[in-house]
Amino acid sequence: MSAAQNALKFAWLEVTGLCNEFCDHCYADSSPKGTHGALSVQDWSHVIDQLADLGALDVQFIGGEPTLHPGLPALIRHAHGSGLSVEVFSNMTHIRDELWETFKECGVKLATSYYSDTAEEHDSVTRLRGSHRRTRTNVEKALSLDIPLRGGVVAVREGQRVREAARDLTMLGVGMVGGDKTRAFGRASKGAAPTISDLCGHCAHEKCAIGPTGDVWPCVLGRFLTIGNVLSAPLPEIWGGERMTAVLSDITAIHGEGAQSCTPPQFLPMCGPCGPCVPSVGHCDPRETDGVATIGVPANPLR
């Protein structure tokens, strides 16, 4: 599929591998030992310029924990000034005053993960004492500032209070609360090598992910399928290039031309109105979830 047939509309920008949490299920394998990688703020700004020139509409800053990157305010302002809609996916434990001001100034949307209505259980998942209190406090602050916020409750262990967690976010005033299961990537794979069959099949369809070393992936979970590096080639050459064509061919060989499974709702801010499943469903395929109730999910996507 050529770049003309497959317009690039959205990109995850994984600006750092550093995170103050150390969740066992982290698909990016980020941790307090992670780094900001090889891209400077100037490099990221150049990438953002190329995305805008390609006609992209949205970017989502992720990590690691993107709020730990000192250049995040500048990058948000640059993306906003380039006409891109911005979402930041954060654990919301470390938001300094400058970031709150930038969020408001640039119309940023926020997204966060939430694991339980109890501090003990949430903190045991994140392995960061006090993370529940900080996240919950900053969720309340975001809502008080009228900053759009969506929450995702990821089921990571047996007996987890996922429904109570979703209900807690809804009670706080979060209008869009989705659920997901653990994805077997990164630390969650427990050493198993990822395969194309583990993906949903929508990889590189109007979207890509760019990591802190400059690698370009067909999606945030398909980081084992590198299609180029922005430090070696311009993004317009990578998107629709030979390597991407080969990766798409491999994905199509496994999933077919019309993959139907949902993209994980926590990661993609443009997810459609079908809404994610509650975590207890254990899968994310809308063809198999007719009649299954969702928790606090509105009829329209947050956009």
From TrEMBL:
Residues 202-248 form the 4Fe4S-binding SPASM domain. Keywords: Iron, Iron-sulfur, Metal-binding, S-adenosyl-L-methionine. Gene3D superfamilies: Aldolase class I. Pfam families: Radical_SAM, SPASM. One of its GO terms (molecular function) is iron-sulfur cluster binding. Signal peptide: none annotated. Residues 14-148 form the Radical SAM core domain. CDD domains: Radical_SAM, SPASM. The keyword Iron applies. Transmembrane segments: none annotated. PANTHER family: PQQA PEPTIDE CYCLASE, RADICAL SAM DOMAIN PROTEIN. This is Radical SAM protein.
